[in-house]
Design brief:
The protein has 180 residues and is an alpha+beta fold. The protein is globular, with a radius of gyration of 16 Å.
C-alpha cells in the first residue's frame, strides 16, 4: 500500500458505491483504532478507525475520481488536529480540524457535482468515530470520562483511500499518498 495509485483489490461486487477517506498516519490510526476497539460495540465494529470524506459515490465515476484524487495527492499532506470530542446522537467521535482537507474535499465535491448523495452534500464535519450505536446515556458517560483526558494532537493526513462498500464492509481499491 505504499505506491501512489496502487490497486489494492481487483474483484468487487458490481455496482458497489465508492467511499473516499482521508487516511490517517500510522501513529494516529493506531491510537484512534485502540479507542474504537475499546468503546465501539464489538459486534458492530467491522472497520478500523477512519475519516470519511465521501460515503457513496457511483461506481461509474471511479476513473475520474482516481484522476482527481491523484492530482490532489500531488500536494503536501494536509495539516490536521484532533482537538476534542464530537457528540453524536448515539455515540462519540474525535473531532478533527483541518481547513486544508476541507478545501480538498470541496474540490472533489465540485468535480462530483450532481452525483453526491444527501449525506455527502452536507457540510463536512471531519471526525473519527470511536463509539456508535449505543444508548445516549452511554455516549454521554464516555464523553464525560474521555473529554477531560483528551489532549490536542497535531498530525498530517497521509493520503486518500478509495474503497468499495460491499454489504457493510469496505473493500480497499486504491491508496493515493500525498507527495508534495
Amino acid at each position: 500500500m505504499n505506491r501512489e495509485g496502487e490497486i489494492l483489490a481487483t474483484e468487487r461486487k458490481p455496482g458497489a458505491p465508492l467511499l473516499v477517506t482521508a487516511e490517517l498516519p500510522p501513529d494516529v490510526l493506531g491510537w484512534a483504532d485502540s479507542l474504537r476497539r475499546t468503546y465501539y460495540p464489538p459486534e458492530r465494529n467491522r472497520l478500523r478507525a477512519h475519516v470519511t470524506l465521501f460515503h457513496a459515490l457511483p461506481p461509474a465515476v471511479e476513473g475520474e475520481l482516481v484522476d482527481v484524487l491523484a492530482n490532489l495527492a500531488r500536494n503536501a499532506p494536509p495539516r490536521a488536529r484532533i482537538d476534542g470530542l464530537m457528540k453524536l446522537d448515539n455515540g462519540t467521535a474525535l473531532q478533527v480540524d483541518s481547513p486544508e482537507m476541507v478545501d480538498l474535499h470541496a474540490v472533489i465535491a465540485e468535480r462530483m457535482h450532481g452525483l453526491l448523495t444527501d449525506q455527502d452534500s452536507r457540510p463536512l464535519r471531519l471526525h473519527i468515530t470511536i463509539q456508535n450505536k449505543v444508548a445516549p446515556a452511554a455516549a454521554r458517560a464516555l464523553q464525560t470520562e474521555l473529554g477531560p483526558a483528551l489532549t490536542p494532537r497535531a498530525f498530517r493526513f497521509r493520503g486518500f483511500g478509495l474503497y468499495a462498500w460491499e454489504t457493510g464492509l469496505w473493500r480497499p481499491i486504491r491508496l493515493l499518498p500525498f507527495r508534495g
